[in-house]
């Protein structure tokens, strides 16, 4: 017998998402499914019938944020059916289910079942929001790819193309939380991009855990996905959220460099500029390969924005190794650093490495890298000052200003122009001086 979906009609919902853009894409997909069944978004400041929390577990700090948010949502919505899903739910599901007020816990591989669990929950005789209902976190389900596509409040969409990771970095719990590498088919992803175009979307960011590993499920290749998406009419821009350097091939670089719609914007996880630390992390490359990839990007796309992830304070990272990493990054053509402090994660091989970096030292090292990042970002903005580049303007008005990004990810500010912003137009703009780190003035051309 088919489930009675009418039990959800007219119910109100609130959505809370922590962590990566992949999580946002998955939350958005569930939100769309619930709206199609008559669920409406709760008004700001009011309690809801349904609260869905999509969690992150990339660091111990992320776990703390998850717990704090869960308790706050339960406290503020005492009569709601509270659903906790995502990576933290996958790793600590039974523990979360014991939190008073949490009703449904769904692991990372079964997010697509959330709507089904809610229907069952509200269909039960005598069921109240204080009842415990279900925990679905079995690892067997971490082999299935679940679609996800979201839009933010600006102009871009986030399309989930891949999930999971087969790498075994010593500091990371993501393979346990997300499972094996898997992906959607090129045909299904092109269909989602076409739907975004029909809805008026102009920019899509490709998201995943290890995007370059695309094809494990379907036998296809990421470069062929790029070629196919480039043919979708209506999508003006694509960005690739993150790509392992050892999976960034010359072929992919050539395709992106010649593409109609893929932007000169790269995000690469380095994690350390010390080969010794990279070996401790069990990363699949060394600094020479990373340098080669950066050089090839700049050779093919001289104006490209290159963001780089770096972890500081990894077990085994002596002061000498950190200084080696800092000096390496100083000499590379990177645009911006995304700095993360190493976090102890239960069950990871890194815990067997004897040298532990103190929190105070991690803080000092983070500051040194952030200072370097700010200098490099300002230098990049100054390098392009005076250039005319295409800008995709965001819909929102903030204190009488509108904001947008150039093709190479320079963020620009201009007086709000309703005809431009509200249409999400792409216009030519002349880049002016940097107003503050990461934002420059501009004039419209």
TrEMBL record:
Residues 151-381 form the Radical SAM core domain. Its cofactor is [4Fe-4S] cluster. The gene is yqeV. GO terms for molecular function: 4 iron, 4 sulfur cluster binding; metal ion binding; tRNA (N(6)-L-threonylcarbamoyladenosine(37)-C(2))-methylthiotransferase activity. The keyword Cell inner membrane does not apply. It comes from Porphyromonas endodontalis (strain ATCC 35406 / DSM 24491 / JCM 8526 / CCUG 16442 / BCRC 14492 / NCTC 13058 / HG 370) (Bacteroides endodontalis). Keywords: 4Fe-4S, Cytoplasm, Iron, Iron-sulfur, Metal-binding, S-adenosyl-L-methionine, Transferase, tRNA processing. The keyword Metal-binding applies. This is tRNA methylthiotransferase YqeV. NCBIfam families: MiaB-like-C (TIGR01579), MiaB/RimO family radical SAM methylthiotransferase (TIGR00089). Pfam families: Radical_SAM, UPF0004. Residues 11-123 form the MTTase N-terminal domain.
């Amino acid at each position: 017998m088919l489930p009675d979906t009418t039990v959800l009609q007219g119910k109100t919902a609130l959505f809370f998402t922590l962590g990566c853009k992949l999580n946002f894409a998955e939350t958005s997909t569930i939100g769309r499914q619930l709206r199609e069944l008559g669920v409406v978004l709760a008004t700001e400041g009011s309690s809801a019938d349904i609260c869905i929390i999509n969690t992150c577990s990339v660091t111990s700090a992320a776990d703390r944020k998850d717990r704090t948010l869960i308790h706050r949502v339960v406290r503020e919505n005492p009569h709601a059916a509270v659903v906790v899903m995502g990576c933290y739910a996958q790793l600590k599901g039974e523990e979360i289910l014991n939190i008073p007020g949490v009703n449904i816990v769904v692991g990372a591989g079964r997010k697509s079942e959330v709507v089904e669990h809610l229907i069952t929950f509200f269909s039960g005789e005598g069921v109240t929001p204080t009842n415990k209902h279900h925990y679905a976190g079995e690892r067997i389900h971490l082999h299935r790819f679940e679609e996800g596509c979201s839009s933010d409040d600006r102009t871009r969409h986030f399309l989930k193309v891949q999930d999971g990771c087969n790498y075994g970095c010593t500091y990371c719990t993501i393979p346990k939380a997300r499972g094996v590498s898997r992906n959607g088919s090129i045909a299904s992803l092109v269909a989602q991009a076409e739907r975004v175009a029909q809805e008026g979307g102009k920019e899509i960011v490709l998201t995943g855990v290890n995007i370059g590993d695309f094809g494990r499920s379907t036998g296809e290749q990421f470069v062929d996905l790029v070629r196919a998406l480039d043919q979708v009419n209506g999508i003006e821009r694509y960005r690739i959220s993150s790509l392992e350097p050892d999976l960034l091939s010359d072929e992919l670089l050539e395709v992106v460099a010649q593409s109609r719609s893929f932007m000169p914007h790269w995000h690469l996880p380095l994690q350390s500029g010390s080969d010794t630390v990279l070996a401790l992390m069990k990363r699949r490359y060394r600094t020479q390969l990373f340098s080669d990839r950066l050089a090839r990007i700049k050779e093919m796309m001289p104006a490209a924005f290159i963001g780089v992830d770096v972890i500081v304070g990894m077990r085994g990272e002596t002061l000498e190794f950190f200084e080696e990493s800092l000096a390496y990054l100083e000499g590379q053509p990177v645009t911006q650093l995304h700095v993360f402090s190493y976090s102890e994660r239960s069950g990871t091989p890194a815990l067997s490495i004897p040298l532990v970096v103190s929190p105070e030292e991690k803080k000092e090292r983070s500051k040194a890298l952030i200072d370097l990042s700010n200098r490099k970002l300002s230098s990049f903005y100054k390098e392009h000052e005076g250039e005319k580049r295409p800008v995709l303007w965001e819909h929102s008005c903030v204190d009488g200003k509108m904001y947008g990004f150039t093709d190479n990810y320079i963020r620009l500010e201009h007086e709000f122009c309703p005809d431009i912003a509200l249409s999400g137009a792409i216009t030519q703009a002349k880049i002016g001086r940097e107003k503050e780190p990461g934002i420059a003035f501009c004039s419209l051309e």
